[in-house]
Amino acid sequence: MSCAGICGLAITRERLKEKTEELDDALAKAVRFVGEHFTLEARFSQFYLLHTITRAGRLTRRETFPGKQANERHDWYREGARLLLARQLEDGSWKEGTDGFDKSRIIATSFALLFLSREQ
Fold first, then answer.
1. Interacting residues of 102 by C-beta distance below 8 A, sequence separation 6+
2. What is the DSSP letter of 60?
3. Three-state DSSP class for 66?
4. Residue 25: alpha-carbon gap to chain centroid
C-alpha cells in the first residue's frame, strides 16, 4: 500500500501546475519509508508487490530506494529480476503460493513480465 501511495503522490505532483512543498515532503517521506522497509519477499501476492515497486520506481524516476543505513541503496530492478529468475519455472512461467494473485500462473506470469519489461 505504501507503493500505491507513492504512485498517487507522484501522479498528483506531475499533474499539478504549481508544485507544493507539502506534496514534495510527503513524497520524500513515502520514498524513505519504502526504502527503510524495502523487501521483495511477501507473504502473499509476491508478484503484485513487484509490480507496485516497479510503478513506484518508474513514476518517481528512481533506480534505487534508500535503505536504513546512510549509504544503503536498493536497486529495485536488479534485486527483483534476480528474485524472478530464481523462481521462474521450467516452462518459463511463474507461480507462487496459494493465496492472492500468486495462485494463478497467468496472473503471476503477467506481473513478472510487466516487472521485467520496465517499460510501463
1. 44, 45, 46, 47, 48, 95, 96, 108
2. T
3. strand
4. 20
Nearest-10 crossing angle of helices 76-87, 105-117: 140
Q: Grid coordinates representing 25?
A: 515532503
Residue in the structure block whose three cell numbers are 520524500: 28
- Which residue type does 2 have? S
Helix (H), strand (E) at residue 74: strand 73-74
Kindly state the cell numbers that stand for 24.
514534495
Element (H, E) at 48: helix 46-59
Residue 2 CA to residue 87 CA, distance in Å, equals 25
- DSSP calls for 72-109: -EE-HHHHHHHHHHHH--TTS-----SSGGGG-HHHHH
At 55-100, the pLDDT tens digits run: 999 999 999 999 888 889 999 999 999 999 999 999 999 987 777 7
Inter-residue contact 28 to 65 (CB < 8 Å): no
The pTM (predicted TM-score) of the whole model is 0.83
Amino acid identity at 25: D
What's the one-letter identity of residue 65? F
